[in-house]
């Protein structure tokens, strides 16, 4: 069976395609999901792709990730910059979490420069639009392969 990766999207990402297209592009969340499923298949990963506007739902899904998922890709959207609760949830997880943002948050308003997720994430990908999700899937596949690889044998 293929390992499963949970891809979680936070508030307002359901509006992609209509929302500030000069910032987020014309790609819809459904387009991104389709791209992730194709890329996941090529990498031998099953993709479960979800979106919610509710912080508590993100917390429940992150907790669920600890039961049966191999990795999480998280675009917590605005909660990235506000949520100690999400920080605590990610911190408690043993599966790796890859933080993604469509836009380059560091080239935007100062309030977007701080992330409560980054200190507890395996890594961060920002500014590459929908491609960022596929890059995160690559990173997840590589981390999983590394975790499964037998330890190097040392010559006597
Ligand atoms: C975002 C960046 C956040 O600052 C913003 O609140 C979002 C989307 C991104 O993908 O670029 O909603 O996470």
From TrEMBL:
Top-rank EC class of the record's enzyme: lyase
Residue positions of the active site: 24 (proton acceptor), 101 (proton donor)
- Has the keyword Cell inner membrane been applied to this entry? no
What positions are marked as the site Transition state stabilizer?
A: 19
Q: Which InterPro entries match?
A: DHquinase_II, DHquinase_II_CS, DHquinase_II_sf
Reactions this protein catalyses: 3-dehydroquinate = 3-dehydroshikimate + H2O
A single GO molecular-function term is:
3-dehydroquinate dehydratase activity
Q: Where does substrate bind?
A: 75, 81, 88, 102-103, 112
Which CDD domains does the UniProt entry name for this protein? DHQase_II
Entry EC number(s): 4.2.1.10
Give the GO terms filed under biological process for this record.
amino acid biosynthetic process; aromatic amino acid family biosynthetic process; chorismate biosynthetic process; quinate catabolic process
Checking Gene3D superfamilies in the record gives: Dehydroquinase, class II
Q: Show the NCBIfam families listed in the entry.
A: aroQ, PRK05395.1-2, PRK05395.1-3, PRK05395.1-4
By its UniProt entry, which HAMAP family does this protein fall under?
Answer: AroQ
Spell out the protein name for this chain: 3-dehydroquinate dehydratase
């Amino acid at each position: 069976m293929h390992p499963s990766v949970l891809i979680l999207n936070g508030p307002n990402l359901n509006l992609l395609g209509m929302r500030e297209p000069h910032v987020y592009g014309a790609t819809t969340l459904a387009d991104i999901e389709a791209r992730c499923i194709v890329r996941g298949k090529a990498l031998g990963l099953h993709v479960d792709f979800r979106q919610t506007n509710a912080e508590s739902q993100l917390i429940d899904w992150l907790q669920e990730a600890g039961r049966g998922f191999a990795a999480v890709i998280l675009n917590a959207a605005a909660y990235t910059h506000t949520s100690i609760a999400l920080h605590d949830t990610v911190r408690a997880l043993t599966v790796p979490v890859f933080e993604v943002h469509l836009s380059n948050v560091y080239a935007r308003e100062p309030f977007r420069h701080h992330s409560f997720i980054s200190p507890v994430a395996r890594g961060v990908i920002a500014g590459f639009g929908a491609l960022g999700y596929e890059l995160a899937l690559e990173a997840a596949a590589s981390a999983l392969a590394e975790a499964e690889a037998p330890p190097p044998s040392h010559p006597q």
